[in-house]
Amino acid sequence: MSISRTRNAQHKVYIPSSARENQYLMAKIPLSDELLAKYENSIDTNASQPYTKFYQTLAKLFFTINDELAIESSQFIANDKFARVRFSPEKLTSQTEQQLLFLYNPQYHTSQNTFYDGDKKAKKITLLFLANGDELRVNSAKFHQQVTLAIAKFTEQTGINKSLVRVSDHQHLTYDLFAKNKGVEGTQLHKFRSMTNRYSADEQNLPSDTDSLTYAVVDFPINRRVRSLVSIEESGSEQYNELYNLIADAFISAAKNQNLNNGAVIANGLVPIVRKGEDENVIASGELLMLGYNPTHTSCGYTCKWDSAKLVDTVQLIFVATDQDKTSHGYGKFVNQIEQALRTFAASLDFINDKEEMLVRLHQHIGYYYSE
């Protein structure tokens, strides 16, 4: 094989045909005094739930616009909870004190729902749009265009200042790294082009100040076999420290051998939320663990957060791409490096490829303030 063909092959990723897709967009709108003043007739400060009619009025307008634009699935959220979306063969919406989790299959499940507390004034309104259909990635630019049109109509009809609206577009591909070992046949070819490049090719131009972030979250299950790799004390505040150290050392060593130098090991029961920030930071906030990364920084190292006294079901392993990981082809080489690191990591812990599942979820995000 020629050198050019070998280099080109580095940027192609063959993932299992069983991979699952998600796409969703969010528009976050501050609940300003100006907006409240415009709808003051629907707010009864003497009622036990003064904001119920206000939220219902906005939600009705929101869903009417979505119906006009043939957007099948959307959620009106005004309770300041963090919204997460995942693929699931069964449709389910789960709420905790801080989170709203939407599980659905984009091919079959549609919904329009509202989530608010009528007795509370939320800090912001979140409009959540869930993609539906068969080929989400292929049609992602079209869906983005539909959604931004819906946001434009909503802001125009409510008088909301567009420049205050933060729009984010999230796309995932989720698959078992060892699906082939379990009999899954066929592959999908990806180069993982950046979202801005993909959208530009489909004549969907994004604002020049659009932020982007690419990363992977890997679920490593802690079963009886893994627990038996070390001697675990029956009690004590440090009883799982040796187990988590073993996993972290094996993971970080395998990652660095592939020149992957940004990421985290999370084993404390919190939900890691990866976001772009000017500086690297880790902030625990109740159920959530906010991880900030700056893609311009090439070697931030690995953050390890675990609770030595607590046994988790799953350790989450995170890889974050830097600007240097983005080539003219896309992020394909970065994903191949991740896969190779994970295979080395799995082998070092005697992973049983045909019986144990290691889920890889590849994230591509963009975000910007709405203007047009």
Low-confidence stretches: none
Radius of gyration: 22 Å
Oligomer: single chain
Give the amount of beta strand, in percent: 25-35%
How many strands, what sense, and barrel or not for the largest sheet? 10 strands, mixed
Extended strand count: 18
| Secondary-structure element order, N to C | HEEHHEEEEEEHEEHEHHEEEEEEHE
- Taking strands numbered 1, 2, ... along the chain, how are they ordered across the largest sheet? 7-3-8-2-9-18-11-17-12-16
What is the approximate shape?
A: globular
Average pLDDT, rounded to a whole number, is 92
Our count of domains comes out at: 2
- Helical segment count: 8
- What structural class do you assign from the helix and strand content? alpha+beta
Q: What is the first-to-last residue Cα distance?
A: 48 Å
* Helix share bin: 25-40%
General description of the model:
The protein is built from eight helices and 18 strands. It is of the alpha+beta class. The chain has two domains: 20-178, no CATH class; 213-369, no CATH class. The strands form four sheets. Strands 7-3-8-2-9-18-11-17-12-16 form a ten-stranded mixed beta sheet, covered by helices on one side. The longest helix has 19 residues, at 140-158. The N and C termini lie far apart (48 Å).
Could you give the topology of this structure?
Layout: H1 3-10, E1 13-16, E2 20-30, H2 33-38, H3 52-68, E3 73-78, E4 82-87, E5 92-95, E6 99-104, E7 112-116, E8 124-130, H4 140-158, E9 166-176, E10 187-190, H5 195-201, E11 211-221, H6 224-227, H7 241-257, E12 262-267, E13 271-276, E14 281-285, E15 288-293, E16 301-306, E17 314-320, H8 332-348, E18 359-369
Parallel strand pairs: 3-7, 4-6, 12-16, 13-15
Antiparallel strand pairs: 1-10, 2-8, 2-9, 3-8, 5-6, 9-18, 11-17, 11-18, 12-17, 14-15
